């Protein structure tokens, strides 16, 4: 499986690509048509509502006039009109004039000013003008102008939510189509080719059951009968077994839903913990970062042992064992009464999350061809990031509709769903390759840690990029956007751009990193573009710069994420031989978790003294320094004595 060409995977990939293109085109056309139809059908109803409001206001004014109060002397008219604008957000301007055309009172939104509003009458379809009568005599005029942008703005909010849900549906459909295509076409075709290659090499140890052959049952039966016939002639029919082949696609859908569930709070967790409060000694900054720090501490504790535990148990057992605990911890977070309780449950969730995902990552690495290592890691990260994208986007929408607690309960339900699917599609007979553990080199982990290239990789890329992710994306982005008046749903949409950029660019980066471009150029350019983007926020402010920077940082992170893991494995194997890749990967995981923890703690301490902008600028400068480190020591084309050829 590690060296053969996966013919079925290539065929299934073409099918999935066409299906994804058709679904995306259909969704785009449907959304465009729905917007135009909805806006056209709603406009007459809004005009009727404006006319009804105008008639009601006129009756109130005429009632005051009937009591003998002159129109010009009605007290509190301006305050009354202001209250009407607050009560009816679809109104843009209300003006009350006398019969002579003199402006008596006025109230408006936006850049328009009260009594300085122009006297000319707006004759647009959004304007309603009614005469005010006293005993059948016109004494004044009431003009109400509806906001033509109101329907569009509300429709925009709805459509943004629909787009978010649509993107989640597309990613979910992509994973489902990929699983179905693999089971019906990719995996059977790969098994057929593998069995043919074995028999061409005079190896008749395996057969292919009909249930594993999909629509290729006749071919599988012919090849299996041939193997059975040869085995009978040799008297070795008892040694025949079903063809063992592991595929990463088996765990994609369960891991995707599991990642969506665990990242459901990505857009609002710091705000949720901060509002929950805690003891008197717990500042708002400490409360906001407590769940993130607990999460990263738990991940750091599992980094040295996660790989060994994952190799001890099968992916199915470890993944399914994590499901009920994850659901329980998410319920605990949703019921949390203060930030410390929330941090405890969130950290506990991180432990089982680390075990489940590390196990599946090891599974992806072992089942991939050796010359496609970056693509294997990139494929796994694509699933994890896709789930994080869906979780942060969907969580922001849900939190705005059903509240934060309800969102966590929804995430617990998703975790249970991922377990049910995993129990059905993940094979329980697949175990991770144990050959590496029996042939490990005697060189210690310090040989990897003291390697110049590994040092440059960790200090130049892993440390700054993970500080940027934990401090800038997880903590500062929600807090800064909320300070600018952005709602939870919009924060979720902005944060999802970070993950969307990785989804769009990640597979391409992985393919070129395994090809002629190599890993180091992507690492250098990725950390550079991230540093430039984040540093610019020190000089720019507003929502739009934040949107652009979050997207650019996502692009930079996509260039570094899978590439840094593949580079660490390569350095470990070149430095320590067999087993060095696992050691280097474990060390890299631990270092990046510790960097994220230190970054969060430092931000909590320094923000009250330096402010948000200084911390953000410092993160950008740190990444630019990482670029210089990678330029100086990250690339090494010459063979040194410490390098061991593969």
Features:
646 residues; mainly alpha; four-stranded antiparallel beta sheet; two-stranded parallel ribbon; 19 helices; 5% strand; disordered C terminus
Structural write-up:
It is a single chain. By secondary structure, the chain is mainly α. Helix content is 72%, strand content 5%. It has 19 helices and 6 strands. α4 links the parallel β5 and β6. α10 runs antiparallel to α15. The longest helix has 60 residues.
Secondary structure layout plus pairing:
Elements: H1 7-66, H2 77-87, E1 91-98, E2 103-108, E3 127-133, E4 138-146, H3 148-200, E5 206-207, H4 217-234, E6 241-242, H5 249-262, H6 269-276, H7 284-312, H8 315-334, H9 339-366, H10 373-402, H11 404-425, H12 435-438, H13 445-449, H14 452-483, H15 488-513, H16 519-536, H17 543-576, H18 580-610, H19 612-633
Parallel strand pairs: 5-6
Antiparallel strand pairs: 1-2, 1-4, 3-4
Helix pairs in contact: 1-3, 3-4, 3-5, 3-10, 5-10, 5-11, 6-7, 6-9, 7-9, 7-18, 8-9, 8-11, 9-10, 10-11, 10-15, 10-17, 14-15, 14-16, 14-17, 14-18, 14-19, 15-17, 16-17, 16-19, 17-18, 18-19
Gist of the model:
This protein has helices at 7-66, 77-87, 148-200, 217-234, 249-262, 269-276, 284-312, 315-334, 339-366, 373-402, 404-425, 435-438, 445-449, 452-483, 488-513, 519-536, 543-576, 580-610, 612-633; strands at 91-98, 103-108, 127-133, 138-146, 206-207, 241-242. It is mainly alpha-helical and 646 residues long. The protein has a four-stranded antiparallel beta sheet with strand order 2-1-4-3, with helices on one face. A two-stranded parallel sheet has the order 5-6.
């Amino acid at each position: 499986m590690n060296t053969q060409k996966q013919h079925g995977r290539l065929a299934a990939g073409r099918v999935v690509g066409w299906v994804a293109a058709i679904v995306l085109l259909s969704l785009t056309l449907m959304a465009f048509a729905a917007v135009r139809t909805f806006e056209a059908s709603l406009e007459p109803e809004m005009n009727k509502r404006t006319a009804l409001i105008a008639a009601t206001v006129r009756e109130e004014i005429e009632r005051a006039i009937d009591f003998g109060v002159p129109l010009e002397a009605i007290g509190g008219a301006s305050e009354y009109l202001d209250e009407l604008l607050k009560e009816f957000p679809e109104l843009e301007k209300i003006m009350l004039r006398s019969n002579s055309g003199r402006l008596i009172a006025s109230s408006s939104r936006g850049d328009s000013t009260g009594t300085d509003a122009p006297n000319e009458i707006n004759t647009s379809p959004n304007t309603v003008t009614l005469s005010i009568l006293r005993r059948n005599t016109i004494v004044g005029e009431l003009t109400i102008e509806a906001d033509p942008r109101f329907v569009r703005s509300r429709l925009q909010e709805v459509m943004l939510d629909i787009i978010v849900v649509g993107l989640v549906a597309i990613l979910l459909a992509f994973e489902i189509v990929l699983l179905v295509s693999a089971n019906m076409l990719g995996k059977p075709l790969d098994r057929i080719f593998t069995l043919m290659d074995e028999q061409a090499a005079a190896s008749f140890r395996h057969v292919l059951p009909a249930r594993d052959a999909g629509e290729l049952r006749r071919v599988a039966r012919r090849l299996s009968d041939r193997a059975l016939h040869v085995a009978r002639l040799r008297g070795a029919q008892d040694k025949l077994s079903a063809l063992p082949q592991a595929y990463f696609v088996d765990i994609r859908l369960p891991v995707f839903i599991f990642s969506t569930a665990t990242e459901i709070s990505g857009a609002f967790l710091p705000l949720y913990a901060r509002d929950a409060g805690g003891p008197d000694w717990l500042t708002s900054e400490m409360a906001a970062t407590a769940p993130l720090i607990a999460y990263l501490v738990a991940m750091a504790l599992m980094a040295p042992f996660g790989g060994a535990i994952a190799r001890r148990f099968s992916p199915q057992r470890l993944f399914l064992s994590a499901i009920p605990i994850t659901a329980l911890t998410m319920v605990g977070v949703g019921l949390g009464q203060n930030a410390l309780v929330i941090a405890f449950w969130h950290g506990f969730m991180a432990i089982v999350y680390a075990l489940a995902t590390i196990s599946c990552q090891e599974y992806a690495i072992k089942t991939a061809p050796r010359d496609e290592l970056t693509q294997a890691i990139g494929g796994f990260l694509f699933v994890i990031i896709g789930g994080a994208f869906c979780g942060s986007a969907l969580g922001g929408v849900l939190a705005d509709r059903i509240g934060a607690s309800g969102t966590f309960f929804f995430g617990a339900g998703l975790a249970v769903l991922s377990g049910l699917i995993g129990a059905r599609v993940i094979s329980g007979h697949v175990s991770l390759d144990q050959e590496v553990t029996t042939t490990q080199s005697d060189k210690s982990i310090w040989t990897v840690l003291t390697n110049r290239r590994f040092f440059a990789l960790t200090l130049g890329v892993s440390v700054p990029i993970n500080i940027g992710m934990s401090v800038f994306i997880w903590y500062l982005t929600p807090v800064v956007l909320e300070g600018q008046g952005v709602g939870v749903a919009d924060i979720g949409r902005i944060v999802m751009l970070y993950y969307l950029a990785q989804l769009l660019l990640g597979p391409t980066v992985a393919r070129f990193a395994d090809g002629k471009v190599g890993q180091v150029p992507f690492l250098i350019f990725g950390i550079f573009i991230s540093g430039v983007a984040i540093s610019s926020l020190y000089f720019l402010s507003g929502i739009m710069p934040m949107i652009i920077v979050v997207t650019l940082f996502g692009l930079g992170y996509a260039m570094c994420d899978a590439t840094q893991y593949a580079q660490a494995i390569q350095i470990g194997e070149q430095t320590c031989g067999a087993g060095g890749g696992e050691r280097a990967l474990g060390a890299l995981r631990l270092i990046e978790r510790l960097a994220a923890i230190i970054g969060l703690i430092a931000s909590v301490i320094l923000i009250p003294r330096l402010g948000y902008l200084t911390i953000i600028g410092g993160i950008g400068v740190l990444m630019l320094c990482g670029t210089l480190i990678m330029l100086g020591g990250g690339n090494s084309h010459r063979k040194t004595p410490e390098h061991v050829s593969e």
